[in-house]
């Protein structure tokens, strides 16, 4: 079902007023974790001021260490929903168990399945049984074929509102947190009919690489770029080294627009 062979036309996923995969490349931005209403509203307002309508933020955080901040849970979803209503934005957040899908339907415009859950098949089946847009991330060590099979799980349950997101893979390289598999983007565009996104934050893990990685992703045909923005990354409860502050984000988006890689309002 995900293969382009039987479905030659691009799938366009409607998220509120935005069409993802319609040929206009977009930005998805927001903090790594939802930490407070004030934090989310500050970022949301800054994004909205620049015409970005897609707000991300983690409420359930799959952390490597059980002693790290685990997210605000449903409180975080409530904050996101409020921000979406207040600033007229669409909100995107990850859920980690099949039991959270029903709750997520009430609060989110897009359900994210994180890299660590790309092969959580029960979760894939559950989101596949809804018609909510799903943003599926590539697993840390998943091949493109495994990624496509995970997508097939979602589509085989009937949900066609699916987007794929390259977010870097594990390699021997230690200079970056993961290795952005840039060629996965055109491969997935060729092999599937689904929108393909690039998460430049989790792939590089480095603030100084967000702009060049975003340029590369847009140039190679990503339908959207995801990047993390926090009012004060130094005190962020997660991913402190890789989030942009608001002035860095403004510079980031201005450069992409000046260089005609991103249109105004995208
Ligand atoms: C995220 O986007 O918040 C996240 C945890 O990313 P990933 O699942 O790609 O690591
Ligand atoms: Mn993060």
TrEMBL record:
Q: Which GO terms describe its biological process?
A: aromatic amino acid family biosynthetic process; chorismate metabolic process
- Residues of the signal peptide: none
Q: Recorded GO terms, molecular function?
A: 3-deoxy-7-phosphoheptulonate synthase activity; aldehyde-lyase activity; chorismate mutase activity
Q: What EC number(s) has UniProt assigned to this enzyme? A: 2.5.1.54
**Which keywords describe this protein according to UniProt?**
Transferase
Q: Any idea what this protein is called? A: 3-deoxy-7-phosphoheptulonate synthase
Say which species the protein is native to. Salicibibacter kimchii
> Which lineage ranks, top first, belong to the organism behind this chain?
Bacteria, Bacillati, Bacillota, Bacilli, Bacillales
Where the shown chain sits in the full protein? Answer: 95 to 360 of 366
């Amino acid at each position: 079902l995900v293969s382009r062979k039987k479905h030659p036309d691009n799938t366009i996923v409607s998220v509120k007023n935005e069409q993802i995969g319609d040929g206009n490349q977009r930005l998805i931005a927001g903090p790594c974790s939802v930490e407070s209403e004030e934090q989310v509203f500050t970022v949301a307002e800054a994004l909205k001021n620049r015409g970005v309508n897609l707000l991300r933020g983690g409420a359930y955080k799959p952390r490597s260490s059980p002693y790290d901040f685990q997210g605000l849970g449903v409180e975080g979803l409530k904050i996101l929903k409020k921000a979406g209503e207040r600033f007229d934005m669409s909100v995107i957040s990850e859920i980690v168990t099949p039991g959270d899908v029903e709750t997520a339907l009430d609060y989110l415009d897009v359900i994210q399945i994180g890299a660590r859950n790309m092969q959580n098949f029960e979760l894939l089946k559950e989101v596949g049984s809804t018609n909510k847009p799903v943003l599926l991330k590539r697993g840390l060590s998943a091949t493109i074929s495994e990624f496509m099979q995970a997508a097939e799980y979602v589509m085989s349950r009937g949900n066609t509102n699916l987007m794929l997101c390259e977010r870097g893979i594990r390699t021997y390289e230690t200079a970056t947190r993961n290795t952005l598999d840039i060629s996965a983007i055109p491969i997935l565009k060729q092999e599937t009919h689904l929108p393909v996104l690039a998460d430049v934050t989790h792939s590089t893990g480095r603030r100084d690489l967000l702009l060049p990685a975003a340029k590369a992703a847009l140039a190679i045909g990503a339908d959207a770029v995801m990047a993390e923005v926090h009012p004060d990354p130094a005190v962020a409860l997660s991913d402190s080294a890789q989030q942009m502050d608001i002035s860095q984000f403004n510079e980031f988006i201005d450069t992409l627009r000046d260089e005609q890689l991103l249109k105004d309002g995208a």
